[in-house]
Each structure stands twice: as structure tokens, then as C-alpha cells.
Amino acid sequence: MLIVLNALSGAAVIRRDPRATFAERLPDAVVHESAEGEDLAEAVARRMEAPDPPTVLGVYGGDGTVSRIADLARRYEVPLLAMPGGTFNHFVRALGIDDVDAAIDAYQRGAVRTVTVARAVAGADEVIVLNAVSIGTYPTFLEQREERFHRLGKWLGGVAAAWSALRTARPVTIVRNGRRARVWSVFVGVGRNDPRRVATMQRQSIDDAVLDVRIHHARGTRLRAMASLAFGRRTAAVLRALRMMPPESDVERLVLARFEIAVRPADGVPSVFVHDGELEEQHPSGFTLQCEALPSAVTVFAPPA
Known about the structure:
single chain, 305 residues, Tumour Suppressor Smad4, eleven-stranded antiparallel beta sheet
């Protein structure tokens, strides 16, 4: 096994260093600690081209790191051992895995499942998505949080970014099938999700072979636009009780296998999209985003459903 370890992930969370667990429970595994800015595809390719290549790819990190290694596991046709090392770990939680030991338990039992992923294409970028793709208010929030991360940390940076976005958020224009609309956000989730949510960042199943799209039309206030980003069940319930969430009439839902839109940001609005917490910059004038569900695309070690 080759384990890619992103020690920079989950800096806002206190957890035990996994190296001792790897040494004890996976003594034959090779652990590669990723460096900042390193091309993980090249690092994995070097191991795969060696005389004795790994037959399993492991990853310890957040959703962004896990999605990159999942793409490589798919390319090399080897199973993936995903372990939670980020702040939220949306994908690993969807697998029913809460910690490193639970993931290794599934591996040692040989418990495998296949998962649906999405392929997202925008300009020259093509990425594999495990949870969701988004445009609009959420990418704007993430970009502002990244600007404040080194100075304030993830949590305080997130509060400052939310306050800034609350004051400056602007709608984005999208075009789909010849129809134009002004929207606060678009979320393209992998698999069907809770119909009451707008931000489908936490997938609800791993093998549902569809995309669940939420288009939040820009009919309400900036406050509702930011409240709609709540993905935690309790937080969303509280905001809904306070009538801060957008009404159902403002949110269009589509369930389909393929989805395509042209994105035209307003002046001064970043031309970006987000996949699994990772920002991708596009041409300032806008871009076309294409998403497609890929059923049974990656084999993972996970407890039974």
C-alpha cells in the first residue's frame, strides 16, 4: 500500500498523529508525506511505475486531497483506502468512517464498495468530484477565507469571510438550455440529497448514480444567500425555524445524469468554481461548467451499508 499523507490538512482540528497507527497496523505500507505545492499525480506515478507497484492507494487528508487520490485510484484501477484527516471529511463520513482505525478495520476485513463520482470540466480543468461542485456565494466565501487563513486561521477567517460576503455578495448570471437566470449559487451534488437543503456539500449516499442540482435564484436578500450555505443538519434547522433560509420557491431542483451551464460573473465577482473545497480559477469573462455522474467509478474500503 502507498499512503499519501497531507499533514497540512485539518489544521483547525486536534487529532492524533496517524503515523504511529500506520506503523502498528500497516507496517508494510509506504507513507508519502505531501509537500506544499507538490504534484501528487507525479508522486504517485513514480511509485506506480516502480518494479513492485502498490495495489492499494491510501490517503489521509481533507476532501480536496482525498478527491485527487480517488482520481488516481480510478486511473490506476486500484482500490482506495480513505482516512479522515481534514476539517469536515464529508466523503469519508459518507462512507461510514469516523476515524483512521475504522478505515483500517474495513481494509483488513476486505470490505469494499463502489462509489459514484462526478466528472467536472471547465475550460482546461477536468476534475473528479466526490461531494459537490459549486458556483456563486460559496466559492466567494472560500476565496475570502483563504485570503485570511494564514492571519486568522480557518475558523476566525471563516467568520470574517462570512461577514465580508454578507456585505458584498452579488448574483451570478448563468445560462442553461438557452435560458438566462441571476442566481446566488448553484450546487451540483453527487447523488440525491436532502430536498430541503441548498448547500449539498455532504453527500447522503455513495452509489446513487445521479447529480442533484440546487439553483438558488437571486430573489431574496444577501442574508438568505449566506444562510443557504449551512450544510449541518442542526444549523440548517435553526436557520429554517428563524425563517432565514430561502423559501422553496427560490430554489430550483434538478435530478439528472448530466448538467451544463455557462457562468457569467458580475463585474468584480471572482470567476471561480469549487469542487470538494478546492477553488479553481477560470477566465474573468466567464466559463462553461459541465458535470457528469460516473457510476461505480471508484472502489473503496468501507463498512457495509
